[in-house]
């Protein structure tokens, strides 16, 4: 039996000649295929006819199962309207009886082919977060001679930035990460989103932890108080290159997110808490500059400092101005331990600038950081009763309290040229905060792993590095033991977290869940009608009795006697 070239060559007259089983599969309104198909009787000629109708886009896809006359094998051909060619799959015929294929075998084979082809269909529910909203893809398809369907005007509307009020109305919790029960998200919550949409800006916390280790091991190898350890600079060399590779990988992935899903990045930037993590990429670059091995670069170029500090200065102008000007982004409303990231950049920049020989610039950033650190420290210490307490999963971010004073002590010591009283005050504050958190063991265990755990790392590393600087000024067995102990704890913590992160990312694959915070709707949900006022009902039941007069008094209904008077 000679098969036609395509389904379009089969005439309606040929279809009415022979009756054989056919299959009909209908998609639901979401474009999903059913788990099984229903066998129906219809007219066909030498083949089974399968009609797949997509009710959403109003087109039909024809899938023909050709059955040769000898009954040896059959060929499954799928004709898609968006493609000029047919995609055929040859499979052995099973359960042939009298030249007619068995329906159950057909259903199984065809279902597999339908689902494979359905996976290729484009899911347009994420188009609103794409940079070009699919327009570039449609233009490329038109250039290839494949015209796309015309979208409605509502789909061409560019999304507007969410006002800060929507974040507070739609989300709850101290980090504004949990969706309120009355709210809905604009992305599907019953499936895993594309990886870039789930990739948060907080992933740069991993870079902070690893790159700070390069600084600590460089200080261990060069500090006079730790010469007895005989640390080789090769460790600093290896850690620095690992840090460079890690920063490059994390930054490249997030840059792809900026290019492909700019709306998701914009929503992170306008998030009142998440915006603090936009300091992390630049702080990581400052750490790389501080931890560069001496064998590679003996003296860094001065313009590098201005290049790295310019974006930090611009971010501070925005965030510090919002803290001071009031509104929904005032500090008393958005105060969170993650705000320390916007402070640490000043002290890290001052430390790098002073080590390059600069004077005025480092002092400027040190003064700005010190003023806002005092305000933030007091605000976080006296959290108002109306502020939410941090959930247990976010307890590690409390270690960010240690980061700013420990780096500030080293920055001031580098500016002054010695570890004087000002540097010691900042160092002792950091040491006290470190011990006050470390003794609370139950405060930091019993919760699920997340990227928030990396908040442990660079504050602990900063405290260990500051302890080495102090030990160089006050050298004795106590200070040397302290800096060695803090260094061991910081190294073990970073190693354990790095291994755990790799395990959750590549084995368990649960490191990046759906980012609900960026998928909130720009419209408030419609309020539900209240048919009864529960407060009035409770008051009525409390004061009313079985006596009619008490009931009338409770309801304030005038009695006939009172009316007649």
Automatic annotation (TrEMBL):
What membrane topology does this protein have? Multi-pass membrane protein
Superkingdom field: Eukaryota
Its localization reads: Cell membrane
What keywords sit in the KW lines?
Cell membrane, Ion transport, Membrane, Transmembrane, Transmembrane helix, Transport
Primary localization class, coarse:
membrane
The record, for Pfam families, names: SLAC1 (PF03595)
Q: Which InterPro entries match?
A: SLAC/SLAH (IPR030183), SLAC1/Mae1/Ssu1/TehA (IPR004695), Voltage-dep_anion_channel_sf (IPR038665)
Bilayer-crossing residues are: 196-218, 238-261, 273-292, 304-321, 341-358, 364-382, 394-413, 425-444, 451-471, 477-499
Would I find Hydrolase among this entry's keywords? Answer: no
The entry assigns this protein to a family as follows:
Belongs to the SLAC1 S-type anion channel family.
- UniProt-listed PANTHER family: S-TYPE ANION CHANNEL SLAH3
**Protein name, entry field:** S-type anion channel SLAH2-like
Tell me which species this is from: Gossypium arboreum (Tree cotton)
């Amino acid at each position: 039996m000679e098969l036609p070239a395509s389904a379009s060559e089969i005439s309606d007259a040929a279809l009415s000649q022979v009756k054989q089983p056919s299959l009909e599969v209908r998609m639901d309104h979401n474009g999903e295929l059913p788990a099984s198909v229903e066998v129906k009787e219809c007219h066909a000629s030498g083949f089974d006819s399968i009609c797949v109708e997509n009710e959403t886009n109003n087109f039909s896809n024809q899938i023909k199962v050709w059955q040769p006359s000898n009954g040896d094998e059959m060929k499954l051909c799928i004709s898609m309207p968006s493609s000029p060619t047919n995609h055929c799959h040859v499979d052995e015929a099973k359960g042939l009886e009298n030249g007619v294929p068995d329906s159950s075998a057909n259903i199984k084979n065809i279902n597999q082919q339908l689902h494979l082809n359905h996976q290729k269909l484009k899911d347009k529910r994420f188009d609103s977060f794409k940079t070009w909203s699919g327009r570039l893809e449609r233009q490329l398809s038109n250039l290839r001679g494949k015209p796309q369907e015309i979208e409605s005007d509502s789909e061409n509307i560019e999304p507007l930035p969410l006002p800060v009020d929507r974040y507070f109305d739609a989300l709850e919790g101290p980090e504004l990460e949990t969706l309120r029960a009355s709210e809905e998200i604009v992305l599907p919550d019953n499936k895993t989103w594309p990886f870039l949409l789930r990739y948060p800006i907080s992933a740069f916390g991993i870079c902070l932890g690893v790159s700070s280790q390069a600084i600590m091991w460089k200080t261990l190898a060069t500090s006079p108080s730790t010469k007895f350890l005989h640390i080789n600079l090769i460790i600093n060399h290896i850690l620095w290159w690992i840090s460079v590779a890690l920063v490059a990988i994390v930054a490249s992935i997030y840059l792809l997110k900026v290019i492909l899903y700019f709306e998701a990045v914009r929503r992170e930037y306008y998030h009142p808490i998440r915006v603090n993590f936009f300091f992390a990429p630049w702080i990581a670059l400052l750490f790389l500059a501080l931890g560069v091995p001496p064998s590679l670069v003996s003296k860094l170029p001065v313009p590098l400092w201005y290049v790295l500090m310019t974006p930090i200065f611009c971010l501070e102008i925005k965030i510090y101005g919002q803290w001071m000007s009031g509104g929904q982004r005032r500090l008393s409303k958005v105060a969170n331990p993650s705000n320390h990231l916007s402070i640490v950049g000043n002290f890290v920049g001052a430390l790098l600038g002073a080590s390059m020989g600069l004077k005025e610039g480092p002092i400027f950033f040190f003064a700005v950081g010190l003023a806002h650190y005092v305000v933030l420290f007091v605000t976080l210490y006296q959290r108002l009763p109306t502020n939410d307490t941090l959930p247990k999963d976010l307890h590690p971010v409390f270690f960010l309290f240690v980061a700013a004073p420990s780096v500030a002590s080293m920055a001031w010591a580098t500016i002054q040229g010695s570890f004087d009283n000002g540097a010691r005050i900042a160092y002792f504050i950091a040491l006290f905060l470190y011990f006050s958190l470390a003794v609370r063991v139950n405060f930091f265990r019993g919760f699920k792993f997340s990227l928030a755990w990396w908040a442990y790392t660079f504050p602990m590393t900063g405290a260990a590095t500051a302890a080495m600087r102090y030990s160089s000024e006050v050298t004795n067995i106590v200070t040397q033991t302290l800096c060695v102990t803090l260094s061991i704890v910081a190294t073990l913590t970073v190693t354990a977290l790095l291994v755990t992160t790799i395990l959750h990312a590549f084995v368990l694959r649960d490191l990046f869940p759906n980012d609900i915070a960026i998928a909130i709707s720009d419209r408030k949900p419609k309020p539900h009608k209240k048919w009864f006022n529960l407060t009035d009902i409770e008051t009525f039941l409390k004061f009313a009795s079985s006596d009619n007069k008490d009931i009338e008094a409770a309801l304030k209904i005038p009695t006939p006697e009172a009316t007649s008077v």
